[in-house]
Amino acid sequence: MKAVELHEKESWSKAIKRAEGEKVKDDPKLLKKTIKKKIIKKKKSEKVWKERIKSVNKSMAERQQKRTENIQARIDAKKNKKKNKRRK
User: What's the CA gap between 88 and 81, in Å, rounded?
Assistant: First the structure.
């Protein structure tokens, strides 16, 4: 009884909205298609984000490696300079 009344009320509200020129989005095929599109878009976005994180981490590691090499080169240069001063 209550379900029938609810269904009838819903039908009337949809009919009124259609009469007013408003679009009623109740087609199951289109709703499924929309949901599928959203899921695919979300997965694609997630994949792009993972790639971005991966590239950022890679660039950070490269920069850190370059930094340590430069620091080591500076230390070696100081040692060589001290050795050369001792020889003279």
Answer: 11
Q: Do residues 31 and 25 make contact, with C-beta atoms less than 8 angstroms apart?
A: yes
pLDDT of residue 55: 98
Distance CA(60)–CA(68), nearest Å, equals 12
Per the domain annotation, does 82 fall within a domain?
A: yes
**Model confidence pTM above 0.85:** no
Domain containing residue 65? 27-87
Say if 10 falls within a structural domain: no
CA dist 30 to 2, 17, 20, 37, 50, Å? Answer: 28, 19, 22, 10, 30
The total number of structural domains that make up the chain: 1
What pLDDT score was predicted for residue 18? 87
pLDDT at position 46 over 90: yes
